[in-house]
């Protein structure tokens, strides 16, 4: 996402309540993937020859702890592969932590990049219903929101067609519409602010501002640093799975930007 793409929301006076919405305690998340290692890359591409069975272990999140008071808009920043999405998926309850505890008080609604979670063979409306049920609403509650969601997504007759016929932009609009209309106590957004064209972005911005002003609790992963600066009242910087810094947006972002800049100008390519 480029600078011009950034959604600007004026920081509002947050009402942070002395009550924890999300508690992350000593959380570690390790992925174990088994694969067949072949002698050459070409053989690997061709899947030729017999490979040696190997296990790759990735410690995506290492011993991370923090509490999110209700009403906080928490930004999560960090390099690609820092563990942001992994942590978010664990908070959303999609994957379990390998060690540690995550406690979430309230109903979450998750907006992941690329609208994961939709079934391509079902229509948009059917997916909205499933998404609503998964978010903990009753069938009736979802049905009363159908019109509002469809109007917000604004994808016309496509709402009644299987989602495999959607462009990625259309799927993203529906995903955004669904997650915003679930009246979540806690909204989890993973790099999904850049979706849609200018008109939709404006609408999405207004909706987000409404939620921010209503003091919803929000966890926002974004590379759009201006958005993070203007929307969040607290920021966490993840670096290689560890929490490098936590604090006021200005302080964390300035340090992060400086670190990135130093890294780039020094052409240090040891980012693995
Ligand atoms: N499903 C998975 N299986 C194995 N490794 C994964 C999986 N998802 C992510 N990883 C690894 O975990 C690390 C953190 O990834 P991720 O949480 O997606 O980072 P970020 O969202 O900050 O870019 C990376 O090294 C990535 O390769
Ligand atoms: Mg990610």
What structural keywords apply?
3-stranded antiparallel sheet; 34% helix; 272 residues; Rossmann fold; binds adenosine-5'-diphosphate; binds magnesium ion; 27% strand; alpha/beta; 6-stranded mixed sheet; disordered C terminus
Tell me what you see in this structure.
With 272 residues, the protein is of the alpha/beta class. It has a single domain, classed as 3-Layer(aba) Sandwich (Rossmann fold). Helices cover 34% and strands 27% of the residues. It is built from 8 helices and 9 strands. The chain has helices at residues 41-46, 84-91, 124-134, 139-153, 168-180, 198-213, 225-231, 249-265; strands spanning 20-37, 52-69, 73-77, 99-104, 108-111, 186-190, 217-221, 234-239, 242-247. Strands 5-6-7-3-8-9 form a 6-stranded mixed beta sheet, sandwiched between helices. A 3-stranded antiparallel beta sheet has the order 2-1-4. The longest helix has 17 residues, at 249-265. The chain is globular, with a radius of gyration of 20 Å. The chain starts with 19 loop residues before the first strand and ends in a 7-residue tail after the last helix. Residues 267-272 have low confidence and may be disordered. The chain binds adenosine-5'-diphosphate and magnesium ion. Adenosine-5'-diphosphate binds next to strand 1, strand 2 and helix 2. The site of magnesium ion has 2 residues, from helix 2.
